[in-house]
Amino acid sequence: MDLGIRGKKALVCAASKGLGRGCAEALAAAGVDLVLNARGAGALAATAAAIRAAHGVTVTEVAADITSATGRAKVLKAAGAVDILVTNAGGPPPGMWTDWEREDFIRALDANMLTPIALMKALLPGMMERGWGRVVNITSQSVKAPIAQLGLSNAARAGLTGYVAGTARQVAPEGVTVNNLLPGIHATDRADALDTGVAKAQGITVEEARARRAATIPARRYGTAGEFGAACAFLCSVHAGFIVGQNILLDGGAMNSTL
């Protein structure tokens, strides 16, 4: 399917690996020029080079902490006017409700709620002025089915979800859509970290922890960054203009719900 976005420009955050890279790869395959951001300059440069070689699109890389005001300013200056925004940031650490103090919540809100909001506030006006734009926020399945040990993520991402619910309806008349993708467990570094934590807590191997988690998913496997990226690219396409303010779950059927 031709997504109809060849020649558009996208800013993809946390794009050097994992789900962010999956989204960047899929957009590049559709002919979208990219501005890629991540903290680690080395991994980001390698990803940018690989995407240029594979897809022949223009790729600008900006190594910066997108969750900081100075990092965002650097990224936004390099990005300029973009047609597509994919927000993404690593989730806060797991723990118990007794572990977290105010400062922990502030860090989680900064990374997983306030940063995406700041990026949208900066870039939505230009999209609206040009009459076309796409925003995809990578959040988590936890906004639909909270995960006890990820309370910081549950809280911050739920806040972003509420913000998007209203904002998406306000910008839609100008040809701009805002939607959220909610990943379940995918084969990424984040999954490795969670499985390692479970393995240590239960005295089992990481492989056993991974197998047990996969067995709880109806698809009986983890998702891949490639299939996640394909879903993101479709939401950014000309075919998705009637999808507004939605929270789309990609979890292999793990959440047991009729609606």
Structure description:
It is built from 8 helices and 7 strands; from the N terminus they run E-H-E-H-E-H-E-H-E-H-E-H-H-H-E. With 259 residues, it is of the alpha/beta class. Strands 3-2-1-4-5-6-7 form a 7-stranded parallel sheet, sandwiched between helices. Helix 5 links the parallel strand 5 and strand 6. It is globular and about 55 Å long.
Produce the secondary structure layout.
Elements: E1 9-12, H1 18-29, E2 33-38, H2 41-55, E3 59-63, H3 69-79, E4 84-87, H4 102-130, E5 133-138, H5 151-171, E6 176-183, H6 189-202, H7 206-215, H8 225-235, E7 247-250
Parallel strand pairs: 1-2, 1-4, 2-3, 4-5, 5-6, 6-7
